[in-house]
Amino acid sequence: MRILFRWIRKQSYLLLTILLLGFSVNQVMRFHLYQHSFYVQSSLGLYRQMDEWKSNSDYYFGLRAENEQLARENLRLRNLLEQFGASPDSTFLQSHYDSAHHKALNYRYRQAKVIRSNTRLRNNILIIDKGQNDGIRPNMGVIAPNGIVGIVIETSAHYSLVMSVLNSKFELTPYFKEVQLQQGVLAWPGGDPSRVRVMEVNKAERIRKGMHVQTSYYSTLFPPGLPIGRVSQIRESADNTYVELDVALGVDFERLRYVSIVENLMEKEETQLMQAHQEMQNHD
Amino acid sequence: MIEALKYSIAAILLAFLQAYLIQEINMGVWLKPLPYVYLFFVLNVQSNRFIVLASAFVFGFLIDLLSGSFGMHTGACVSLAFAKDLYDRKALDTDSLLLQGDAYLTPQSKGWPSYLSYVGSLTFVHHVVFFSLDYFKASAWGSILLTSLISTAGTIGLFLLLRASFSTK
Asked: Strand pairing of A123-128 and A212-215?
């Protein structure tokens, strides 16, 4: 036994080297073979923590500035488009409006950052970092570069609550660009956060997979012609009169960071007209 | 104490330099310089070898954490510390170095050929271990040797630059 201890003491440097090397090789083997499962399963590992810190620092030092710059640029371009009376989709304009109506497309855009978002609930919401002090009011549309995001439902001084497209209460009439059709009700059936459903579309309409789904001119919240997504699946409804469509959303809600809030500058005028119309109907 | 602090600061700087700058530059398939090994060649020859070994482990571990290479730098640094100790005790005449007033081998101590063979062979050992762990395939021995050889040349070039920039003379 004493001989063994003496040998260990004599070879301690070599043994320590082997031990440390063994640890290193073990790390290499572990992360090369099981790297993926480790990343998914481990939530408290030191490497993961460091990796998160690194990615966060990358985000803060690099991507954030880039995103902000892109979002600002996007906002500037949108405002410029409105200034010149153009819509993001000129085909839509040509087919539905004449030049005398270009004022109906007067919108103003404000940029905001998403500070909280969920996609796993039945009624999902977002919180954005702009509120009453920034001119945000309930019933303003919220959009991202790839499509619509939701509608502002509550505001505080500095924040707003947005009802996401992925909310059971959200409904919209879609526009099918290729067949120039405004029909049906777009809503989220729950489950997959990358898809919504359009119901009550006439079976006789020639809707095909891959067609672009956009916002219609019926909406007072969103400018017409904004992208929503693409038709990904078509099936007949139970009564065989309509078709039900699955639409793959353009917006990735799980990675949403920046949004634009749409203010319809003609909203008051439109509301007054609607009120006048209702009063006339009540008198009759 | 002050010396240990100096080495620690240099180690942290070199680790960040490796993880955030050198590693991000694509220099081709065969050239992957790892100039942080420079730190090992400015270590005092009288340093306690256990402390050097443990510090090499921590140093490698830090670079692995920063660069996400999971054990590769740690293994290579531990091997380098071991090989350096072996070389220093068996081949390097440390007594004559100390008599000259040098704490570590410099080109001025025993001339450039001796310095380059010392630095080159130890760097090569480090790189072979690193790239063996990187490729992790016995059949890739040719690529491991070639990458190690070319990268050793790159590393030496870079740390001669480092040396020149930190030189007070």
From this structure: unpaired
